Amino acid sequence: MKKTYIYLLILVLASSFSLSSCKKYLDINKDPNTATTVDPKLLFSFAVVSYANLRSSGDSYIPFALAGQSVATGGNNPTGWGVPSEEQYKISSFSNANSWRAYYTTVGANLKEAIKLAESASPVNNNAAAQNKIVLAMCAYEATTVFGDVPFSEAWNTNISYPKFDAQKDVMEGCIALIDAALKQFDDASPLKISDYDLFYKGDLNKWRRLANSVKLRILMTMVDKDPTKVAAIGTMITAGNFIGASTDNCLINYQDVAGKKNPKFLLNEQYNNGVDFFFGCNYVVDFMRNLADPRLPRFFTKPDQAADYFGVENGATADDNVNVRVSPLLHSAVEPEVFFSYQEELFYEAEIQARGLGVPVNLAAATTLYRKAVQQSCLFYGVDAATAQTFAASLPDLSTVASPVKLIHMHHWVDKMDRGIDAFTQWRRSGPSGDETPALKLPIGAPAGPLFRRFEYPTTNEIAVNPNAPKNRIMFTEKMWFDL
What Pfam families does its record include (predicted)? Predict the structure, then answer.
């Protein structure tokens, strides 16, 4: 019964994405915005809100958080999510199709149209075009980490009926080129830009530049283990700097505690579980945090009154309401923001770069400072008081004293992203070759025998089926992508 409710919720969310009204919701080259007089800021704002709702909704958050095992269903607990479910790799066709549609219509097509309108305006609105290009690069990067090879070079082009599916490496290279183009296009001398409809930075171009650099670094860090030539580019970026450099640079969307503007994660629990969170803390996260006496524990999870401490549950096992923690209502509140990029994420990447010597000499002292600062910023972001956050971060081990410093950075990075769905899942996949990722996940109870979950399968739609350039053989959810070693 719960699944019926949730699929209905997904349909409701999907309908909210459909304001641009296109007949073929997966037809990625049908422009849903035929009125060329639309202000680019309106398309930008709609695309960004649609993107945030996708990431925090049942179409993306639930499958990747559960199949990626950063949260748990609670098995057959009567108020848990239930099994079999996404945790056992049963991914709804709605999730695949709605995610594809969002990347290629409500988000991607609107951003592409906004770029076109901004660049054809008189005078040209270069800043608006650049703002849209950065978000389009974020969207396309995410789409390829979800599906693998996807349309990019011929996507969002109404003159091409059957766009080719670009190799993942080429998509990521294209995203980097798009970011570079945006950085060159910013024009501080021009008053034209998206400000009042800019839900990220209110038109602060310096913050947009820092976001662009950080997103570019994220892409390079996803590519570098498969393509070691990216080491030089990473080193160049670290030398140049100008990344997200404070919590005030965080790229996020703030939800509101008013009708129609609440976080979808909150709405899910409010509408279908009497306000009780469906999801439980998994052992991978909770055990790691408990062993550190991590002050974020009460911010991430709700401990039963009867429990002596914070205890998670094995993925797929039935949770005990007197023992196992649920995801905290603080984390799934009506106003909890959807985070696209955080300051602590940037710090974790920089710590990893120093620890691995990617384009710079190995420097474990610098890496230690950076990863401690990342954890401190994570604590502050989730509401831990400043003194406690500082004390906890300072107590973390010096990386020169641990056997696997890079793995420790990866683990802290993954824990910080435990409620960020696709971001946590991609962090896990890039953390090491198959069988050596951090953490060392095993098959959830009830999952089919075989490899771990690795991706969404392509939607089974006529739009893809009739495209001669689309993959013809089924690519299974267990098949690794180019970047995933």
Answer: SusD-like_2 (PF12771)
Count other Cβ atoms within 10 Å, centred on residue 410: 23
Select from 246, 280, 278, 250 the least CA-distant residue to 264.
278
Q: Bridge partners of 72?
A: 280
Q: How far apart are CA 81 and CA 444, in angstroms?
A: 14
Q: Which amino acid is at 85?
A: S
Helix axis angle, 40-55 to 126-147, nearest 10°: 30
Query: Which residue positions in the chain have pLDDT lower than 70?
Result: 1-36, 462
Residues shown for the chain? 485
Q: Which CATH architecture has domain 2-257+337-465?
A: Alpha Horseshoe (1.25)
- Mean pLDDT of all residues in the chain? 93
Question: Where do the structural domains in the chain lie, given as residue ranges?
Answer: 2-257+337-465
CA distance 452 to 284: 15
Give the tens place of pLDDT for each residue, 77-92.
999 999 999 999 999 9
Give 384's contacts (C-beta < 8 A, 6+ positions apart). Answer: 295, 296, 299, 392
The answer to whether 477 and 451 are in contact (CB under 8 A) is no
pLDDT in tens, 120-170: 999 999 999 999 999 999 999 999 999 999 999 999 998 998 999 999 999
Please name the residue that has the structure tokens 């973390």: 396
The pair of structure tokens assigned to 235 is 């080193």
Check if the beta carbon of residue 212 is closer than 8 Å to that of residue 134. Answer: yes
Give CB contacts under 8 A, 24+ apart, made by 152-156: 154/29, 155/28, 155/29, 155/104, 155/108, 155/112, 156/28, 156/29, 156/31, 156/104, 156/108, 156/109, 156/112, 156/113
DSSP secondary structure code for residue 96 in this structure: H
The answer to whether 79 touches 46, Cβ cutoff 8 Å, is: no
CB atoms within 10 A of CB 319: 25
Give me the DSSP letters along 131-192.
HHHHHHHHHHHHHHHHHSSB--TTTT-TT-SS---B-HHHHHHHHHHHHHHHHHH--TT---
Tokens of 274: 């009497």
Spacing of C-alpha 124 from chain mean position = 32
